[in-house]
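Need C-alpha coordinates for this chain, all 106 residues.
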Amino acid sequence: MKKPYAVVLVTTSSREEAEKIAQCLLDERLIACANIIGPITSIFTWEGKTEKAEEHMILLKTRLELFEKLSEKVKALHSYKVPEIIALPIIKGLNAYLEWLDSSIR
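Here are the C-alpha coordinates for all 106 residues:
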Protein backbone atom coordinates (compact mmCIF):
# COMPACT_ATOMS: atom_id res chain seq x y z
CA MET A 1 0.00 0.00 0.00
CA LYS A 2 1.74 3.17 -1.23
CA LYS A 3 -0.42 6.02 0.06
CA PRO A 4 -2.65 6.31 3.12
CA TYR A 5 -6.27 5.65 2.13
CA ALA A 6 -9.44 6.21 4.15
CA VAL A 7 -13.12 5.45 4.34
CA VAL A 8 -14.96 8.64 5.28
CA LEU A 9 -18.35 8.33 7.00
CA VAL A 10 -21.01 10.98 6.47
CA THR A 11 -24.62 10.79 7.64
CA THR A 12 -27.36 12.75 5.89
CA SER A 13 -31.02 13.55 6.45
CA SER A 14 -32.17 11.85 3.22
CA ARG A 15 -31.11 9.57 0.37
CA GLU A 16 -31.40 12.53 -2.01
CA GLU A 17 -28.94 14.56 0.04
CA ALA A 18 -26.57 11.58 0.24
CA GLU A 19 -26.71 11.09 -3.54
CA LYS A 20 -26.14 14.81 -4.19
CA ILE A 21 -23.07 14.88 -1.94
CA ALA A 22 -21.68 11.63 -3.37
CA GLN A 23 -22.16 12.77 -6.97
CA CYS A 24 -20.46 16.11 -6.36
CA LEU A 25 -17.47 14.46 -4.67
CA LEU A 26 -17.23 11.94 -7.50
CA ASP A 27 -17.46 14.67 -10.16
CA GLU A 28 -14.63 16.55 -8.45
CA ARG A 29 -12.62 13.31 -8.17
CA LEU A 30 -12.29 13.65 -4.41
CA ILE A 31 -13.56 10.08 -4.02
CA ALA A 32 -13.38 6.91 -6.08
CA CYS A 33 -16.59 5.39 -4.77
CA ALA A 34 -19.54 6.04 -2.49
CA ASN A 35 -21.85 3.52 -0.87
CA ILE A 36 -25.15 4.82 0.48
CA ILE A 37 -26.69 2.80 3.28
CA GLY A 38 -30.08 3.37 4.80
CA PRO A 39 -32.29 4.31 6.16
CA ILE A 40 -30.52 3.86 9.49
CA THR A 41 -31.66 4.94 12.93
CA SER A 42 -29.35 7.35 14.74
CA ILE A 43 -29.67 8.14 18.44
CA PHE A 44 -27.56 11.04 19.69
CA THR A 45 -27.37 14.02 22.03
CA TRP A 46 -27.95 17.41 20.42
CA GLU A 47 -28.21 20.69 22.33
CA GLY A 48 -28.65 18.86 25.64
CA LYS A 49 -31.44 16.53 24.50
CA THR A 50 -31.48 12.94 23.28
CA GLU A 51 -32.59 12.85 19.66
CA LYS A 52 -33.57 10.03 17.33
CA ALA A 53 -33.49 10.41 13.55
CA GLU A 54 -33.76 8.38 10.40
CA GLU A 55 -30.65 9.04 8.32
CA HIS A 56 -28.62 7.69 5.43
CA MET A 57 -24.92 6.96 5.71
CA ILE A 58 -22.38 7.47 2.94
CA LEU A 59 -19.16 5.46 2.93
CA LEU A 60 -16.65 7.40 0.83
CA LYS A 61 -13.38 5.86 -0.41
CA THR A 62 -10.50 8.30 -0.86
CA ARG A 63 -6.89 9.11 -0.04
CA LEU A 64 -6.35 10.53 3.42
CA GLU A 65 -4.55 13.58 1.98
CA LEU A 66 -7.85 14.68 0.38
CA PHE A 67 -9.79 14.69 3.66
CA GLU A 68 -9.68 18.47 4.21
CA LYS A 69 -10.92 19.30 0.69
CA LEU A 70 -13.56 16.57 0.90
CA SER A 71 -14.67 17.78 4.33
CA GLU A 72 -15.02 21.40 3.17
CA LYS A 73 -17.08 20.32 0.15
CA VAL A 74 -19.37 18.15 2.31
CA LYS A 75 -19.91 21.01 4.80
CA ALA A 76 -20.85 23.35 1.92
CA LEU A 77 -23.43 20.88 0.56
CA HIS A 78 -24.79 19.47 3.83
CA SER A 79 -28.03 20.52 5.51
CA TYR A 80 -26.78 19.90 9.08
CA LYS A 81 -25.17 22.62 11.16
CA VAL A 82 -22.57 20.08 12.36
CA PRO A 83 -22.42 17.11 9.96
CA GLU A 84 -20.71 13.87 10.83
CA ILE A 85 -17.55 13.70 8.71
CA ILE A 86 -15.05 11.19 10.10
CA ALA A 87 -12.21 9.31 8.44
CA LEU A 88 -11.23 5.74 9.23
CA PRO A 89 -7.86 4.57 7.90
CA ILE A 90 -7.73 1.67 5.48
CA ILE A 91 -5.12 -0.61 7.03
CA LYS A 92 -4.96 -3.12 4.17
CA GLY A 93 -6.70 -3.67 0.88
CA LEU A 94 -6.54 -5.67 -2.31
CA ASN A 95 -3.73 -4.09 -4.34
CA ALA A 96 -5.80 -4.04 -7.54
CA TYR A 97 -8.64 -2.24 -5.72
CA LEU A 98 -6.29 0.34 -4.19
CA GLU A 99 -4.69 0.95 -7.59
CA TRP A 100 -8.16 1.53 -9.07
CA LEU A 101 -9.04 3.83 -6.15
CA ASP A 102 -5.85 5.81 -6.72
CA SER A 103 -6.44 6.15 -10.46
CA SER A 104 -10.03 7.32 -9.89
CA ILE A 105 -9.21 10.34 -7.72
CA ARG A 106 -6.99 13.34 -8.25
